[in-house]
């Protein structure tokens, strides 16, 4: 049912934890299952994501997609991080079963929420970023 990559990221999730004094923190809930995800971003003065960590009250698919998403945004610019959609993450994991697609939205939404938090704290506007729900 799950690809080898999904199982790998589920069993050995990357970048689990918190960042103290993070540049941006985003917490979102999944409307479909009620699960929760929090993403911490550390962004340097050049707008490069230096570190990214996550915590979730989610299922295995949420763990695996968040783990992959944190790896994908690491070292990227803010604009590049906006391209890390749930579709891109699922592709990088060789797919997810259809009933688990909603789980992959948590990471994307939490990254966006963390970027929004960062932008608000710095009084800037990030092009293409919508206010989190
Ligand atoms: Fe999320 Fe069951 S509803 S793990
Ligand atoms: Fe809730 Fe997967 S069932 S995140």
UniProtKB/TrEMBL annotation:
<dbReference type="GO" id="GO:0005506">
    <property type="term" value="F:iron ion binding"/>
</dbReference>
<dbReference type="Pfam" id="PF01592">
    <property type="entry name" value="NifU_N"/>
</dbReference>
<feature type="domain" description="NIF system FeS cluster assembly NifU N-terminal">
    <location>
        <begin position="1"/>
        <end position="122"/>
    </location>
</feature>
<dbReference type="InterPro" id="IPR017787">
    <property type="entry name" value="NIF_FeS_clus_asmbl_NifU-like"/>
</dbReference>
<dbReference type="GO" id="GO:0016226">
    <property type="term" value="P:iron-sulfur cluster assembly"/>
</dbReference>
<dbReference type="InterPro" id="IPR002871">
    <property type="entry name" value="NIF_FeS_clus_asmbl_NifU_N"/>
</dbReference>
<protein>
    <submittedName>
        <fullName>Fe-S cluster assembly scaffold protein NifU</fullName>
    </submittedName>
</protein>
<dbReference type="GO" id="GO:0051536">
    <property type="term" value="F:iron-sulfur cluster binding"/>
</dbReference>
